[in-house]
Amino acid sequence: EAQVTQNPRYLITVTGKKLTVTCSQNMNHEYMSWYRQDPGLGLRQIYYSMNVEVTDKGDVPEGYKVSRKEKRNFPLILESPSPNQTSLYFCASSKDRQGVEKLFFGSGTQLSVL
Amino acid sequence: AQSVSQHNHHVILSEAASLELGCNYSYGGTVNLFWYVQYPGQHLQLLLKYFSGDPLVKGIKGFEAEFIKSKFSFNLRKPSVQWSDTAEYFCAVNARNFNKFYFGSGTKLNVKP
Fold it and tell me: Residue A99: is its pLDDT beyond 70?
């Protein structure tokens, strides 16, 4: 089944403790991206990647890192999480490099930073 | 920076009522436009998209949207809603020269049976 898999689904952590949210797609998609969803603000793009080893900042990249060492994986790294990073995170992928075709979304990761 | 505005944050309708959700964007260049839907407990799914051509686009489940370039708008419509349309709807814009997506803040639609 074609899908985007995120792990974990729920995560509670404390300020400053490094964490990684994984994202994997099995559709051989070129484009992958991360979003955070906050009430009243909708989805805001954090980072995106058009290909292996090619990543770029979205609208709200501060406090986040990403890497794209393999085509299928695009982990989101929070080196030193803070409470304002408490949010619902979505990973998405698209078959074209620009990401303008249909975006396939993961099920989301609810992160709470205490 | 681009922005996408969805003016209706919460809409409550009865079944069979007609729906129109507004979406306006602020980018002056050529854009790709999307509507995504998030049903309760599910992830976002594409409802419809506009790249070029006929400004009236039809999507899944009887939804359609009209691109009006002069108004920078891409409003979503459905002639007769069903209880199963209860969801949150997001308008999104992608500028042709960039690879970033901009989403609106979403509209929660509650359809009463």
Answer: no
